[in-house]
Amino acid sequence: MKIMDTSRPLLRRAGALAAMAVTLMAAGACDDSTGTSNRREVTIGGIFSLTGNWSSLGVTSKAALELAIEDANAQAAGSGVTFVADVRDTKLDPAAALAAVQSMRGDGVQIIIGPQSSAELAAIKPYVDANPVLIVSQSSTAGSLAIAGDHIFRFTAADSLEGVASAALAYGDGIRTLIPVWRADAGNQGLHVATRRAFAARGGTVSSGVEYGATTTSFTATIAALGTQVRAALATRPASEVGVYLAGFDEIADVFTAAAADPVLASVRWYGADGIAQSSALTARPAAVSFAETVGFPSALFGLDLTARTSWEPIAQRIQQRAGNAPDAFALAVYDAVRVAALAYITSRDGVDVDSLAARYAQAASSYHGATGWAALNAAGDRRYADFDFWAIRPSGTSHAWTRVAGYETRSGTLTR
């Protein structure tokens, strides 16, 4: 992500780190001479999909949380506060996410990083509203969850900004008719709607599209319905002006495998949303890789500031070493979310309730510049500023890898390739 004030970004980061150091030194100075009376152990929870759909993000998120806690403890040495992790597997299941939150809150956990999906976040919101616990999602984007005054923060922007970026890329490619396909859940539905609106606002035509169920495992019917709409579009436009927009998670590998059987679907361009960008689940499937390369499939993802690569790349490398997979910006957002949580706790010497913690968290985020850029939040608790990268599968040596192919700067509306 690029911060809104792009001038002297490294000075902003240096200032933030200096402020963090002052905070930690001041906290350490408040300890008594014995170093025992003010000692606290603070648990930071994590609810990620470790073995279910979108586990490609869940595994790197877990590694990011653990590394951030290690770094926070190293920097907070002498402050009297020690951070520990409690990570649960949700399998991307809303019911499992709710059960994990209830269990963690019962154990006294005040802050939980995650969940990954908007469907999970929507499922836990009523409980969190009635039983305060601070939730910080790294990757939920549904605009329906952008609500001021609750105990839910999101370290990414709401779906409306990503929709504008995706529409800009497709329209800029010459696409004039877009056929959306989306997973039936809050996040992907929101991305589909946001992209539909933004593309139509540019003068493009959007077909009714095809929705598939969140538990779908066979995509024969989905692909047949999509094929019908693509053929209808091709009856009035050349293939160069027809595109497919796909919003989903790791199951997209199965969608591509099914779509590969229809040569008409391979004749138009495809575009993707953030739930699949940089996913190892797709690159692990040769048939899906082949189809993705054929149709282009640039997929939007919360972007990183390339001018600050020296700041975030070492963290990304450490996450990859621990997780075995390269992290995306969402995983790096987990790292930042934990470091901000540590700052919020360090500044409250005698414990804090969830309402006060939320206020301290937002305050700490406003001055924190980390791996994903400036962490300032808006009134709804979502990332205030966000730019986007587009990733596509391209040849890399003897295999294929996700490669950055374009970028979109939200503030200026500039598309770069």
From TrEMBL:
Keywords: Signal. Residues 1-29 form the signal peptide. The keyword Magnesium does not apply. It comes from the Bacteria. Residues 41-373 form the Leucine-binding protein domain. The keyword Signal applies. It holds the Pfam family Peripla_BP_6. Belongs to the leucine-binding protein family. This is Branched-chain amino acid transport system substrate-binding protein.
